[in-house]
Amino acid sequence: MGKQFRNKSILLLAIIMVFSVMAAACSGNEGSNKGNNASDANASGTNAAANKESEAPAGATELSLWTPLNPNASAIVKSLSDVLMVQEWEKKTNVKFSFEHPTGAGADVVQQFGVMVASNDLPDIIVWGTNNIQGGPSKLFQDGTIIKLNELIDEHAPNLKKILDENPDVARQVKADNGDIYVFPHLRVGEYGKYKTFAGQVIRQDWLDELGLQQPETIDEWENVLRTIKEKKGIAPYTSEKGTLLGTKSSYDFMGAYGLGKEFYLNGSSVVYSPLQPEFKTYLAKMQQWYKEGLIDPDYATNDGKAKDAKMSSGKAAASFGYIGGSIGTWLPALQQSEPNAMLSAVQYPVLNKGDEPRFTETSWAYANQGAMLTSANENPAETIKALDYLLSEEGHMLKNFGVEGTTYTLADNQPVYTDLILKNPDGLPIGQAMAKYFIANYAFVGTDDDRYNEQYYALDTQKEAAKKYAEFADNAATVLIPPVSLTPEEADEFGKIMTDINTYRDEIVTQIIMGSASVDDIDGAVEQFKKMGIERAIEIQQAAYDRFNKR
Amino acid sequence: MQKLMQDLSRNKAIYLMVLPMVLYYVIFKYFPMYGSIIAFKDFSVSKGILGSPWTGLENFQAFFDSIYFWRVIRNTLLISVYQLVFGFPAPIILAILLNEIRKKTFKSIVQTVSYLPHFISLVVICGLILDFTSRDGIVSTIIEWLGGERSTLLGSADNFRSIFVTSGIWQELGWSSIIFLAALSGINPELYEAARVDGAGRFRQMWSITLPGLVPIIMILLILRIGGMMDIGFEKIILLYNPNTYETADVISSFVYRKGIAEGQDYSFTSAVGLFQAVINFVLLIGANWFSRRVSGNRLW
């Protein structure tokens, strides 16, 4: 009997093996399919490049450029070489780019970048947000992946040099602690680089008017407004999503009103961590109370971006945090389709006491850690720098932000105005995609941004007002937000190890408190836990980096 | 040696057929094991696997000291145990029930319908689960109809494991029953005839012939399942959890994902955790095999 079973079990084991092999083969296929797609994309990229090669003037410098493709662009072009502005840029600077665009977004891109660096199969240029790189550009430089740009900029980049010389504040942000420049930056500077705040709280203005309410300024007024809307409209008025989870480092809510940054911020000249502050407890108590009363969407921790968009565009929520372009621009037209009288408007950043000025606005720095790095594989650094610097010249700046005169914009009173090709695209493209098809204005790259682009990108009156309102106290942010400091590779490593655990713990305890499954007093225990996990060392590292920044 | 050569030449075709599988395991399973040494190193991408400095057991120490250590172990084991207790018998029962159905068309319809969810991508499945369990979802509607209160079920830590395990059973029930059906068709029909002659009824036949006929395959699958106790894929977990449910949802693999890929990029630490997990699995597998041999005489090797 035993033997018979044994034989049978061998047979069955064989069947199991076949199944697992099938499973393995299936998953294997998936992998190789992905690979194929990627190589397809590459192939078409190179094809496109090869096709245009014939048009490029003889002797053009060939440069490979790695950059994740912005969603607006990837919706409409396969590669940046299909963008009109890039083709013009190549002609003007006598270079020929072949673009490499990683697939996916977020963690996928980080992973592909890691593999690229680890295999030392480097492009000539990397254009990316350097916040994504563990240890930042200084680590890449130390590892020999990228090169230092100071001398190259001195010699070949007169436009960037001029900006840096004229704006010591900006220069300080671009340079590393030791004065090295590793990144050819993307900047918001000068006369047309004033907009630095692109988001804030948004509310249903028509409901405020209908219910006889004023725009809320303080937390108490917010509470009153939300409560009235809840009672009269029968909805949970304030919504949010899991990506911007309330009370966490990625939140965009009412923490600023309590004088708290989202994570690390400045109190005078010392770096502090917001969950350790006594005000944080007050803030959590308020959020817990709001949640309990039903003023906050009970599903805020499980909503994804789409769910939040759906709530804001269908009247199931009355207020949320939003971007002027991406959020208001989507919600309002959708709302008005079903309710023609619906109206959204921007609300000033909240404060605690009437008359206070908000300080913690979502304001970016002139240099937001975005730009181009030249790798050690680049054999034409001088030509590369010249080509990049062209984008900072007057001509290049116009080309980057507005495209080709006569095609994508015209000059009226010396001011660029987009043509209908962009504003009312004949193919029915949304404005963001129409822009991305012809030039690089609505996402970060290299070069300088232009406010005159924003003014036209924000087509709705609400958006224009929002831009003004959010920007009103933008300068205050500079007194509390930590500038783009850089950590040493060792610091970055240690900091990363400490903060991943702390972030998880914070996300959890804060969510439990707000949702009421933990009491507000539990934050005291959490603070002890943060200390055990090494938060004080993390603060020290940030402080040291900030002090070095000030000495630059 | 000579014997081996003889064997090789005699069974050429068979060896040729097994070759791709052997290569598969060597290339994709054995060769990457060498990468496990970064668990004992402070791995840096630029220095490479061999060039990174050794750190001994530091990474393991860090994991054992982590405040999440017990929680991820507990969650992993609990979810596994639930999957075993509720998920393992389900396809067996389905297979036996299907075996009793005499109507061919009905049987194949049931089979096809129950296989279907297996072929839907996990991302889509999780989208469905999130939808069904949301405040306006069908499950909430049923709960309300039964007199409960509407809520986002996945927003609460108490529900996570039940939803995770139940949806897993739903998705894999039909597919996993295939192997039992195959085993059932191998049972000699004469046994049933003899039993009927002896006056055994339907249930008696099920109990005395069908089930014993399934025991070997059940034991083997059970051993394999126990060997994979510490393995819970991170994909479904991370698609369904949120900070409010970490308490019951965070398992070893999702913890590794967050630390290794999503936020921390701490490859050495996560390799150490992965290695630890593999060692436990190995011990469980050996233990289960030993136990099964002692108790039922069935074993993997």
Automatic annotation (TrEMBL), chain A:
Alphabetical UniProt keywords: Signal
Region named Disordered: 30-54
Signal peptide bounds: 1-23
UniProt keyword Signal, yes or no: yes
Transmembrane segments: none
Biased composition range(s): Polar residues: 30-49
Protein name: Extracellular solute-binding protein
TrEMBL record, chain B:
UniProt keyword annotations, A-Z: Cell membrane, Membrane, Transmembrane, Transmembrane helix, Transport
GO biological-process terms attached to the record: transmembrane transport
One Gene Ontology CC term in the entry: plasma membrane
Source organism, top-level taxon: Bacteria
Record-linked InterPro entries: MetI-like, MetI-like_sf, UgpAE/MalFG_permease
Domain spans labelled ABC transmembrane type-1: 73-288
Family affiliation: Belongs to the binding-protein-dependent transport system permease family.
PROSITE patterns, per the entry: ABC_TM1
Protein name (record): ABC transporter permease subunit
First-listed, main subcellular location of the protein, grouped into a coarse class: membrane
Parts of the chain that traverse the membrane: 12-31, 77-97, 109-130, 163-185, 206-226, 267-291
Endpoints of the signal sequence: none
Topology class, membrane: Multi-pass membrane protein
Coiled coil location: none
Pfam families according to UniProt: BPD_transp_1
Keyword Amino-acid biosynthesis assigned: no
Species of provenance: Paenibacillus soyae
Subcellular location: Cell membrane
